[in-house]
Structure formats: C-alpha cells, structure tokens
C-alpha cells in the first residue's frame, strides 16, 4: 500500500473537526494585546488577569484552557483528568525552569527572553529531553535548528516571496487549498479562534421591552493572516510540495511559539520539510512512504509481537513479489498522519511540544523513537484485537489520551527496554535502503506493464 495525498488528507481531517464540547472562558478584552510569551508563561502586563472566569463555586473555577490557549478537554481527555495531571506537571515545570535558569546563568546567557542557548552537548541534550521552559520554547527551537544562520544566508528571501504572492505567482489550486484550511487550523486555540464576544441587543416587543444576546462576528485574527502568508510563500518556494494538508498545523504551531514571527516560521517550516522529513509532504508522498516503511521495519525488529498483528499480508490481495516488497500494512496510513503532522492532533499538545523540543535538537530519529514508544504503550490493546480495521482504530486512538509525557519520554530514550538505541545513522541507512528498494521495485513493475510507465499514485487530488 503506497499512500497518496488524498488518503492522508482523509486521516488528517479527523483532528480538525473534533467537538470538544467546552463552555468557553470569558473572552479576552479586545483592547488588550499579549505576546505569545505572556500567554505561554501566564504573565501579563495588564492590571487584571486576562481571561479570568466570573466567580463560580470553587469546584468549577479551573480555566477551560491550558497554558498555551488550547482547550483542555477533548474527546479523549476530560477536564478532571487534565487538571489532575497538570497539578503535578506544573510542579515539574517549575522545578525544570529553575534548573534551566541556573544553567543559562552558568553560561552567561540571558534568562529573560533569551536569544542564545548553550552549545549542544550530552548535558544540554538531557535538559532538552526533560523539556524546555514553555516561554523559551520558540527561541530554543530557532537556535538549535540553526535559525540565525539560515536567516543570514537567506536574507530578504521571505519578503521577496511575499511580493511574488502579491504579483499573482501563487497557483490558484494552492491558494484555494490554503484558504480552505486556514479556519480549520487549531479551532481549539484562543489565538486562532477567540471566544466570541457577546452583546446585549435591547429590542422592544409587544407588551414591553425584551433583550436577546447577539454574538458579534469576530474579524480574522492576526495569527491567521500570518499563517496565510507563511503557507503561501512556502508553496511558491517549494514547488515540489506546494501546499499539503498538515502544513497548516506545523506552521500554526511555529507561529504560536515564535510570537507570530512569519519569517522565522517560514524558515523552520523549511527545516522540517527538507532536513527532518525530506519528501514527506511532496506531491507523491515519497518521503512519507519511505519513513513509514522504516518505522515498520523498526517495529518488526523491536516489537515482533506487535508486528505480527500489524502485518496484514496485503489485506487478502494477490500481489507480485515486486509489489509485495513495496507494500505497507493497513495501519501505516494512521502512522503516516503522525509523521506528516509531527504528532499534532495525535498526542496531547504538551507531548507534541516535548517531541518538537527533541526534534529540533536531535533530529528525525526522535519521531521514530516516539512512534515506537506509542506502540509499546499500546501493546496490550493492540494484541487484544484481530481485525485489521480494529487494529487501525486502536492505533489511532491510543496516543490521544497519553498525558504522561514524562513516561513517554522515558520509554522513548532509554536504551534498555526502550528505543534509545535507534540512532540517526540507522534511520538514514534504512531510508536509503528503502529508496533503493522502491526504485528497483518500480522498475520491475514498469517492465511488466503494471504501472503503464507512470506511478498512478502521484496524484495531488485533495478530498
């Protein structure tokens, strides 16, 4: 099974439309502007706390949103579950923040809005794996991804691309796809979709006056405008990709933590799609198919009992040896969405952010380790079902309620009983082996007339 964009799009749709069923907190005052760092750290320069809910009984006074502005409740996690976890995790964050402050001071680096970070080392790697302080996260991603150097190397490029967009050089198809996905991006985040303001509209009626509530239509948020710019310029700069679903979530999360800096978000989006996930978002998803094949090989080696369940032997299809060699299990479509979105919409947001901390510091091996850790966590429910579609559904569901990010990271990185032995060299070697196998298999199928000289799965159709 080789995946095309239309297949992956159908899977990606699932984390755009989940109804969390939350009552919104009191809306932000329209005249108050806060930076991402203020939202993330919880600090504000305004005299009264932003977004404080009206006085209620103590049992219902916890806010409905997390420290990043996302709704806490989801289809898989209740408010009570989130609050119970966060009570302990907040203590952990405070402890780690203090350690980071001591570390930064020892290197003579700024502790308030830092723009530089310590050089990479085993010690710093341990710190990053335990989590970057939320208010420093975007700056750390930028630094460890080599952002400052890339900005110097490509000075003026982003503004040039913006002018090209204004001059009509963006294709109509990419423009339409981007517009369609803008308002589907993080509808549960207050910066992308603020809580609606409500006004009282007094109206007179028969027998006296009456009042009704009227929701005012909210203007497009600044971050949505920035997201449009980043996606449009990226599509022009990367014609082999254009626009692909999931890029909106990657760019959107970058904008949240880079305080809305479009140029930095554009550069890091290019780092993700060229350095960490080469070809994954391309027209034919070649990189995605290669990486999922590598993941399946790792599962076969590290989790053989699970592999026995996942390997569905082609779903009953009679395949030639060449086609069989290229085939991926049915469940691989779910894991394709994991990689394309870097686990956004798959793991709870705190877990996603911790994965991204390690990705920008250590590289794409992190994604494979995390995926393996998810499968290990889900071993019991996976082994308990038998039908391939049931297995598919279990694999889709398992990571969505995994709030214990520290437990996930321990399994991900420990060498004994975990996946710390999965090195970047191993991943790159297996990627190259799979590319060679795909090339040889395609040549064999073309010789037998199975592809008509052209791969039929190179469609860009988006459903």
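^ structure tokens above, recovered residues below v
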């Amino acid at each position: 099974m080789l995946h095309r964009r239309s297949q992956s799009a159908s899977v990606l749709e699932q984390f755009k439309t989940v109804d969390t069923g939350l009552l919104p907190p009191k809306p932000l005052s329209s005249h108050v502007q806060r930076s991402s760092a203020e939202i993330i750290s919880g600090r504000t320069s305004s005299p009264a706390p932003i977004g404080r809910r009206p006085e209620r009984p103590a049992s219902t006074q916890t806010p409905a949103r997390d420290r990043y502005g996302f709704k806490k409740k989801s289809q898989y996690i209740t408010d009570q579950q989130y609050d119970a976890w966060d009570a302990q995790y907040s203590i952990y964050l405070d402890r780690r923040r203090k350690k980071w402050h001591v570390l930064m001071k020892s290197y003579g680096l700024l502790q308030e809005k830092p723009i530089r970070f310590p050089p990479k080392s085993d010690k710093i790697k341990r710190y990053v794996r335990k989590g970057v302080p939320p208010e420093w996260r975007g700056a750390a991603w930028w630094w460890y991804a080599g952002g400052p150097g890339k900005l110097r190397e490509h000075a003026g490029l982003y503004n040039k691309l913006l002018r090209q967009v204004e001059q009509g050089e963006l294709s109509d198809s990419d423009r339409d796809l981007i517009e369609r996905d803008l308002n589907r991006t993080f509808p549960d985040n207050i910066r992308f979709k603020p809580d609606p303001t409500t006004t009282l509209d007094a109206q007179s009626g028969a027998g006296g006056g009456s009042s009704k509530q009227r929701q005012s239509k909210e203007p497009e948020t600044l971050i949505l405008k920035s997201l449009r710019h980043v996606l449009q310029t990226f599509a022009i700069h990367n014609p082999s990709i254009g626009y692909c679903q999931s890029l909106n979530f990657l760019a959107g999360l970058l904008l949240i933590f880079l305080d809305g800096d479009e140029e930095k978000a554009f550069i890091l989006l290019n780092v993700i799609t060229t350095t960490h996930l080469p070809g994954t978002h391309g027209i034919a998803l070649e990189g995605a198919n290669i990486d999922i094949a590598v993941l399946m090989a790792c599962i076969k080696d590290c989790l053989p009992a699970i592999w026995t369940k996942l390997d569905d032997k082609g779903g009953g299809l009679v395949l030639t040896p060449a086609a069989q060699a290229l085939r991926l299990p049915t469940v691989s479509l779910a894991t394709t969405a994991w990689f394309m979105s870097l686990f956004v919409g798959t793991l709870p947001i705190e877990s996603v952010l911790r994965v991204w901390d390690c990705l920008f510091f250590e590289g794409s091996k992190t994604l494979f380790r995390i995926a393996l850790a998810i499968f290990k966590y889900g071993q019991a429910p996976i082994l308990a079902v038998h039908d391939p579609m049931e297995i598919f559904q279990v694999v889709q569901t398992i990571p969505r309620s995994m709030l214990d990010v520290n437990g996930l990271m321990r399994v991900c990185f420990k060498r004994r009983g975990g996946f710390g032995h999965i090195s970047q060299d191993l991943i790159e070697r297996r990627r190259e082996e799979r590319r060679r196998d795909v090339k040889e298999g395609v040549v064999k199928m073309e010789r037998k007339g199975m592809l008509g000289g052209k791969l039929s799965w190179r469609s860009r159709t988006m459903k």
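Residues 203 and 210 are 5 Å apart (CA to CA).
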